């Protein structure tokens, strides 16, 4: 079986190094799959987290610990978006430089992953995403969205409505208080070709052995594989892949 290459997008207030380390057990199981972890372009400051835990951002100058985001909001009401254009330019250039079979994201990264999957189906909807009038990359074979949602962005309405067809695996935590059932439904409703799996935990990537095997098999074999559901067994407790509660997801 040929190897797969998957672009991986971390959650808000994480970065590529942190997320890669926290998915170390999954990476070890992903034989034949190259996981490419990308850093979001925006470095976050305490003011970028609204709420009591805003001070929990690591202020270290160590790049490996620098918290990042794919976009931010200028106001606590979350009505003024900043930084999305920069992120889309980064994604465009990344896709133009390398071929990927699929895309995977967690939390805000999952929202972006579904947006990019849909945008590759409708590249003309956002002309700056084109290179010499052509999309930078063909549509993905699949998308994996963990704790995902439909981003509250004007581009979402253009690209994600009425729906997108890229086969997408949605993984939802039954006790997730950050991306609630209602927010999860917002992206499920516009995913035409979907598989939904639930775990008993909250806002994290499930990492128990049965989930690692399922995810590794899905990334390696794709949506056409007849994989048994891991949902019948209890999920692992949070493994550190969570996004801070007060973050913008």
- Terminal CA distance reads 36 Å
What's the architecture in CATH terms?
3-Layer(aba) Sandwich
Characterize the largest beta sheet: strand count, sense, and whether it forms a barrel.
Answer: 6 strands, parallel
The SSE order reads EHHEEEEEHEHEHEHEH
- Output the radius of gyration: 17 Å
CATH homologous group name? Alpha/Beta hydrolase fold, catalytic domain
Q: What is the share of helical residues?
A: 25-40%
Give the class from helix and strand content and strand pairing. alpha/beta
CATH topology, what is it called?
Answer: Rossmann fold
Strand portion, in percent?
A: 15-25%
**Arrangement of strands in the largest sheet:** 2-1-7-8-9-10
**Quick check: average pLDDT?**
89
Uncertain stretches of 5 or more adjacent residues: 51-56, 234-240
Q: Mind telling me the CATH class?
A: Alpha Beta
SS field, number of helical segments: 7
Count of distinct strands:
10
**Tally of separate domains:** 1
Domain Serine hydrolase: 3-213
Pfam families: FSH1 (PF03959)
GO cellular component, one term: cytoplasm
InterPro entries: AB_hydrolase_fold (IPR029058), FSH-like_dom (IPR005645), LovG (IPR050593)
């Amino acid at each position: 079986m040929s190897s797969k290459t998957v672009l991986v997008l971390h959650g808000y207030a994480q970065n590529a190094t942190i997320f890669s380390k926290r998915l170390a057990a999954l990476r070890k199981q992903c034989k034949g799959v190259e996981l490419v972890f990308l850093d979001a372009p925006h470095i976050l400051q305490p003011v970028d987290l609204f709420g009591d835990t805003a001070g929990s951002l690591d202020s270290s100058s160590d790049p490996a610990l620098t918290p990042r985001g794919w976009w931010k909001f200028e106001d606590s009401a979350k009505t003024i978006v900043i930084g999305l254009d920069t992120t889309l330019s980064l994604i465009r250039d990344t896709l133009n430089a390398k071929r990927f079979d699929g895309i995977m994201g967690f939390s805000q990264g999952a929202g972006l992953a579904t947006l990019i999957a849909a945008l590759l189906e409708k590249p003309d909807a956002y002309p700056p995403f084109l290179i010499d009038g052509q999309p930078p990359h063909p549509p993905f074979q699949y998308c994996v969205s963990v704790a995902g949602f439909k981003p509250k962005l004007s581009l979402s309405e253009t690209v994600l409505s009425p729906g997108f067809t890229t086969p997408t695996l949605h993984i939802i935590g039954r006790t997730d208080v950050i991306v609630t059932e209602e927010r999860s439904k917002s992206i499920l409703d516009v995913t035409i070709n979907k598989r939904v799996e639930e775990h008993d935990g909250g806002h994290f990537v499930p990492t128990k052995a049965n989930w690692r095997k399922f995810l590794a098999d899905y990334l390696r074999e794709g949506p056409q594989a007849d994989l048994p559901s891991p949902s019948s067994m209890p999920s692992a407790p949070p493994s550190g892949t969570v996004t801070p509660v007060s973050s913008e997801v």
